[in-house]
Amino acid sequence: MGKLLLVGCGKMGGAMLDGWLARGLVAADIVVAEPVEAIRPRHAGVRVVSSSTEMTETPEIVVLAVKPQAMDETLVDLRRFAGPGSVFLSIAAGKTLGYFAARLGHTAKIVRSMPNTPAAVRQGITVATAAASVTPAEKKRCHELLEAVGQVLWADDEALMDPVTALSGSGPAYVFLLVEAMAAAGEKAGLPADMAMQLARATVAGSGELLRQSKEPVSQLRVNVTSPGGTTAAALQVLMANNGIQPVFDKALAAASHRSKELAG
User: Fold this and answer.
1) pLDDT value at position 27?
2) Helix (H), strand (E) at residue 164
3) For residues 204 and 210, what is the distance between their CA atoms, to the nearest angstrom?
C-alpha cells in the first residue's frame, strides 16, 4: 500500500498502530502526526511528525484518531489530500459523513467508524459506514486496518451509527459499572470490599471469555448457570422482572443514542 497517515496517537490511535504493526504492516509506510510529545510512538521505522502540515506525500489512507472537538482544526490542512483521492477513515464519535463532506468536499472518500475501548487489547468491535464514493477495494483496506484491533461490521444506513454508539461504543462503561454494582452489593451482603471487588472483576472477565469462546446462544449460557429453584434463579427473578434490568438498559441506550444525535449537530 501507499503511505498511511495516522492523525492522533492517543489510546485508540496507539492501539490501532500497535495492531497494524503486529499484523505485518510495514513501519516505513506509516506516518504519525501527534502534537503531544509525551504520547508520540517510539516504534522503529515509523515516521513521527508534530503536525500533518509536515506530510508532503499524498497518503493512501488518512486515519483520523483525534478527539471530536479537535476535528475542525485538524481538517483544515488535511483537505489538500481529498482532491488527490485519499480515503479518510474516522474513529471520532458523532462526526457524520455529512460533517466531513462539508469540510473536505462532497467528493471526498470518507469512512466513518465507531470502535470501542477493548481495542486496546485487540478485543474490540467496530462498526463502519462509507460514503458512496468509497470503492469496494478501499472499504476492504479500511476493514483490514480496523480489524487489527477486533471484529468489524458494516452498516449501509448511517442512521444506525447512533444506536451503535449507544450499545458498543459506550458499552464497556456499562460493563465496568456492572462490576462496581456487583462488588458494592457483595460488600453490603457482608464481604470485605477487596474480596467483593476481586470476585466481581473475575466473574465478569471470566464470563466474557466464556461467552467469546462458546458457540451456544447467550440465553442458553444463562440457563446453564441457573438451577431451578436455586440461588441464581432467585436473583434473576429480580433482574428479569418487568421493572428489572431491561427497562433500565432501554432507557440508558435511548439516552445515549439521543445524545449521539445531538453531538452530530
Assistant:
1) 96
2) helix 161-164
3) 10
